[in-house]
Specification:
This protein is an alpha+beta fold. The chain has 12 helices and 13 strands. Helix content is 35%, strand content 21%. The strands form 2 sheets. It has an 8-stranded mixed β-sheet with strand order 4-3-2-6-5-1-11-12. Helix 5 links the parallel strand 3 and strand 4. The structure holds N-hydroxy-L-asparagine.
Length: 344
């Protein structure tokens, strides 16, 4: 499977992508298939969007010193959760249409352990609450006030997550009140926060999957969900099998984009099952995206969904409906941001 020439090419294209930053995002057949070319072993961490790079760096502190994939993914995604300039995840996330910041997150370990919180308010790190649900309760999902009470009872601090900047964007949005997800807003947010009109933006998620030095896989997914959503709306991100799935025998996958499209086809689980059937990570992501497109090709042209996957060999791949989806990788070769291939 390992192909040295392809691997070198992809490392070079990755470095180039990293140097070019946001502008590097390309699509189509010119992008390398890392599923076959980049088998660099373990440990490895990959995550969605350009802002995954900083999250990966944090995860790598743990993975690179022999820590577990579970600790790494939790620590990694806490970076965007706490970032006041990231309006897509955690603190400073854009609110729902009632002005409430409601967070969704889930985590999975290598033993099939799962924890999830949905529509959680006032807690900066929902991923850590999700982990606590997994480790300290007989349940998998806690929602809303129940999740908040559980968090408070376990030492989490109640905080106002709505920053003045996010509140301003919401108030501007209220003038039109039009719910209209924007394709690839994630990278626009990451790189041009000042240019955002406060109208119809929608926002994003970090999905991260990792394999540690022992070969164990874990994953985490956390988001403030689509901006200006109905109060109580939950997307794919905290739903095990939709926004995230980990099977330690096969691989792990995560998703980003319009969650409703991912939930109805249980996307991340599908990607892992396709890898089980022998597809590479990139092929599996492609088949899953095609399933969404097939249902309604016209609608698919207007929305973004991207999948990112890692298999047990350390090979990874991604595929999205639209160009502009990127993903970040950190392994023993260094850190890279790659463009994901796409349908259009
Ligand atoms: C959701 N999938 O709430 C998330 C949002 C997202 O890119 O990932 N946007 O539907």
């Amino acid at each position: 499977m390992f192909n040295r020439r392809k691997f070198v090419q992809s490392s070079v294209s990755g470095s180039l992508a990293m140097m070019l930053g946001k502008k590097s995002v390309a699509h189509g057949s010119s992008v390398m298939d890392h599923s076959f070319s980049n088998i660099t072993g373990k440990p490895i961490v990959i995550s969605t969007w350009d802002f995954g790079k900083a999250a990966n760096a944090e995860a790598w502190k743990i993975l690179g010193s022999g820590g577990t994939a579970l600790d790494a993914v939790e620590a990694g995604v806490k970076i965007p959760e706490a970032d006041p300039n990231n309006h897509t995840v955690g603190y400073a996330g854009y609110p729902d249409r009632d002005g409430r910041v409601t967070l969704d997150a889930c985590i999975m370990d290598h033993n099939g352990g799962c924890g999830s919180v949905m529509c959680l308010e006032y807690i900066k790190h929902p991923i850590s609450v999700a982990r606590m649900v997994m480790e300290k309760t007989p349940h998998i999902v806690l929602v809303g006030d129940g999740a908040l009470q559980f968090a408070l009872a376990n030492g989490f601090k109640k905080e106002n997550l709505l920053t003045p900047e996010s509140e301003k964007a919401w108030k501007e949005w209220l003038q039109r009140s039009k719910y209209e997800p924007i394709v690839n807003i994630e990278n626009k947010l990451a790189f041009q926060p000042q240019s955002l009109p406060g109208g119809s933006e929608n926002h994003d998620t970090i999905g991260m999957v990792a394999m540690d030095a022992n070969g164990n896989l874990s994953g985490a997914c956390t988001t403030s969900g689509l901006a200006f959503k109905m109060h109580g709306r939950v997307g794919d991100s905290p739903i095990i099998g939709a926004g995230l799935f980990v099977d330690n025998e096969i691989g792990a996958a995560t998703s980003t984009g319009v969650g409703e499209e991912v939930i109805r086809m249980v996307g991340s689980h599908l990607v892992v099952e396709l890898m089980r059937q022998g597809l590479s990570p990139e092929e599996a992501c492609t088949r899953a995206v095609e399933r969404i497109i097939k249902r309604n090709p016209e609608k698919a042209k207007t929305l973004q969904v991207g999948f990112l996957a890692l298999n047990k060999k350390g090979a990874y791949g991604a595929y999205a409906i639209q160009k502009g989806f990127s993903f970040a990788v950190r392994n023993n070769e260094g850190e890279m941001i790659y463009p994901g291939k796409s349908w259009i």
